[in-house]
Amino acid sequence: MIISKKKPFYPVKKKLSKYLIDFDRQQEIPIKYEDLLQSKGSFPLEDLKGNDTLWETLMYDPYAWEEINEHLTYMYLMLKMEGDTTAMPHLKVDRIDYCTFGNSKPFRVRIINQFNDNYDYFYVKKVDASRIYGLELEHILSPNRINYLVDEDTLIEEHISGIPGDQFIKYDLNRDSLNKVRLAKEFIKFNERCFVKLLGDMRSYNYVIDVTPDFDAEQYRVRAIDFDQQCYEGNKKMYLSQFFVENYPIVQFCIDTMNAETTYQYQLEERTLIKKRYHSSEKKMKRLINCMKVDKISTPEKMKQLKEELNEHHSTDSFSVCKSMGEILSNQMDIMLHGK
Fold first, then answer.
1. Is it the case that residue 102 has pLDDT exceeding 90?
2. How many beta carbons lie within 10 A of that of residue 50, not counting itself?
3. Three-class DSSP category at 67
4. What is the model's pLDDT at position 160?
């Protein structure tokens, strides 16, 4: 599949901004994305095995570091404790990493607790309206809660824990203790969830596997960690993770583990759960979709292609009248969740 090499950043317009304010997603933050670009150097960040992670650890002038540390620590508390500064004296920024790989070029901030050396991460990114729609849809329609804040051109996101999909496929997919049925079930449900929401580009490094030990076996949850390709691409296969070559090992794993009847059962289960989540937040969902319907988050060429391919996929012509990606998504959910 051909993936857009350089996806544009779409600004947050008035209607979406009002939505974010009303639901406490938009707040004033003390430091912006552009401020963190003023580093004085960097060095490659390697993993524990000495491999290049494609991240660079940044260095800043000592006189600027104190202010950066204070502002970023407070931003972390805004995410985690609604700005309560009680914990601020024993927290500090341990490291700031920068990724030049991919579209969003995020900063990853490592916060450490000086009492026990426990650490956590959060991300500073450029604002992109399509990404915000992806975050909101994930928060409302998936089993996962998403914590983020927006201020002008800066987006702050909490870290989503789990084993990166590419690493899980490489090191864990064939281990003896793996519960094959449970993992295959979760990947099928994840794939269905992405297609219902039209969240694209779920290659193996854009999701994580959250592994939870249970009393008799492990439980798994597949979680998206990249939302840049929400309702952007025109190729329908971009929204179906089984078509990415990076996912072939786990797709084959699912084929070997599940039969067609059980696969269909789990797809229906996931659609039913999404439908219930939709109805439990119906007013919020309708308001979000209304924002998307008047927003520009893709190109006319990509919308035309997606309408044609979804018409063919669902054996309908109802997508033909859609005038925006928001209208396409609304029609997609009507068909897949409500059978309209």
1. no
2. 6
3. helix
4. 96
